[in-house]
Structure formats: C-alpha cells, structure tokens
C-alpha cells in the first residue's frame, strides 16, 4: 500500500526539535509521506527563539498548491502560522480539500517565546471550524477562551495536559454531543520535551490520513510522543529535542 500523504503547514525550527522538522520525522517514522508548506523561519535551539521571519502568504499558498496539485494529500497538519494573513491564506486552501485536518494552535514555544500575535490568534477561529481536531495545550486553551468557549464552538478538540502541574498527564478529547474521553498517564520527568505538541498533532494527522478513527489516531499519537520522550538523546542545555529516530 502507498503511504498516506501528509501535508504539514508550519514553521521551521533550525534546531530540528519542533515545527516542520519534528513533523517530517514523526510522519516518516509512522509510515507516512511527508510534505511541507513552511510558514516562517525561526532561529532557535533548546534555550529559546532568537529570531522569527514569516514568509509571504502568497509563498505559503504556492507551496500548498504545488503539493496538492501534483502529489495529492490525505491529511493536513497545521502548526505555527506566523501571521493572520497566512492563517487566512491557509484556510482558503484547506477548506476545499475534503481531508482530515489537525490544527495545533501554536502560540508559545516550549521555551516561552511568543509565536502568534493577537490578530493571528483571532484568525484561529476560522481554522478551528475547518479542522477535524484542534489540539491546544493549557496556555493555548486559556487564550482561546477555555473549555466553555471551545465547547460552544461545536468543534472537536483535544485539551493537552502536558504543561499542567502534577505527576499525571491528562489529555481530554471533547466532541460535540459526546461525553469527553480522557487519557491519563504518569508524567515522564525530563527537560527534553521540545516539540511535543508538534509531534502529537502530526502523529494524529498521519493516523487520520491512514484511515484510523480519531480516538485510535490519538492513542497511537500519545504512545509515539511518550516513546520519543523516553528516547531523547539529551542534546541541548535547555528544553532539548525528543528521540523520534528511536521509536519503532
């Protein structure tokens, strides 16, 4: 069988731990074919982000068009966008694709660097409506209005608990008209957790692109992230990268 074609629309992480680089590793290790539309270039490492330069909305759109028109696409992962104009350019293209879309509403890097301004965050509403699943962490969920506002949108979202306090990590799947589904597991005590959100969202997108049901794609994605955390190579003096290469 041919591998599922997964298009990652996200920013580039020069240190390889998050963003497009983490997505390519994840998609490949999970048996998918990775394509990319880079939204922004960042200079960053395990200690933080030192510079961000967004591409033009036209260039982002051209990358998407080039992939879709020739290779085709089975699922889309959307991460860091860089500007409100890019967010709308992406929405203009993905709304007509008819494939699963996983939207990771990236606002703040693991190091704490701001990666989305208020205008960009406001544009997220359109993408959340189009997405099959939105995957906010604790801070992102709060910025998007919390559980009450997210539930009122009538969308499916996975509230991630990795950056919450406590020895157990709880992820909560909320879908319209359904009881929440909760997964909990002991926290893996490591500072090498750069790119967990990027990795999880691209893993879920790969599962959906391969035809897995949503809950099964989430279960496999969570397992992949935990295995990558446990296999981190120990690089960097701060929030180091995970060990995607070791996951089988």
Automatic annotation (TrEMBL):
SUPFAM superfamilies documented for this protein: Ribokinase-like
Pfam families per record: Phos_pyr_kin (PF08543)
EC number(s) on file: 2.7.1.49
Which keywords describe this protein according to UniProt? Kinase, Transferase
Q: Where is the Pyridoxamine kinase/Phosphomethylpyrimidine kinase domain?
A: 13-242
InterPro entries assigned: HMP/HMP-P_kinase_dom (IPR004399), PM/HMP-P_kinase-1 (IPR013749), Ribokinase-like (IPR029056)
Q: Does the keyword Kinase apply?
A: yes
Pathway(s) it belongs to: Cofactor biosynthesis; thiamine diphosphate biosynthesis
Q: EC class of this enzyme?
A: transferase
Q: Which GO terms describe its molecular function?
A: hydroxymethylpyrimidine kinase activity; phosphomethylpyrimidine kinase activity
- Name of the protein described by the UniProt record: hydroxymethylpyrimidine kinase
Q: What is the lineage of its organism?
A: Bacteria, Pseudomonadati, Pseudomonadota, Alphaproteobacteria, Sphingomonadales
């Amino acid at each position: 069988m041919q591998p599922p074609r997964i298009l990652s629309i996200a920013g580039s992480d020069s240190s390889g731990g998050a963003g497009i680089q983490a997505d390519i590793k994840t998609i490949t290790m999970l048996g998918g074919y990775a394509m990319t539309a880079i939204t922004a270039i960042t200079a960053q490492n395990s200690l933080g982000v030192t510079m961000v330069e967004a591409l033009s909305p036209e260039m982002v759109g051209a990358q998407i068009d080039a992939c879709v028109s020739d290779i085709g696409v089975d699922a889309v992962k959307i991460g860091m966008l860089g500007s409100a104009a890019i967010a709308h350019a992406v929405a203009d293209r993905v709304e007509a694709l008819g494939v699963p879309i996983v939207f990771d509403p990236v606002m703040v890097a693991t190091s704490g660097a701001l990666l989305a301004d208020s205008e960009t965050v406001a544009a997220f509403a359109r993408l959340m409506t189009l997405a099959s699943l939105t995957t906010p962490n604790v801070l992102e969920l709060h910025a998007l209005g919390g559980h009450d506002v997210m539930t009122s949108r009538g969308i499916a979202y996975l509230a991630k608990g990795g950056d919450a306090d406590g020895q157990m990590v709880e992820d909560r799947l909320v879908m319209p008209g359904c009881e929440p589904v909760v997964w909990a597991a002991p926290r893996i005590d490591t500072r090498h957790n750069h790119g967990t959100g990027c990795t999880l969202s691209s893993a879920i997108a790969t599962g959906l692109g391969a035809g897995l049901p949503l809950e099964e794609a989430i279960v496999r994605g969570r397992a992949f992230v935990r295995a990558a955390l446990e296999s981190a190579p120990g690089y960097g003096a701060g929030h180091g990268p995970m060990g995607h290469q070791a996951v089988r």
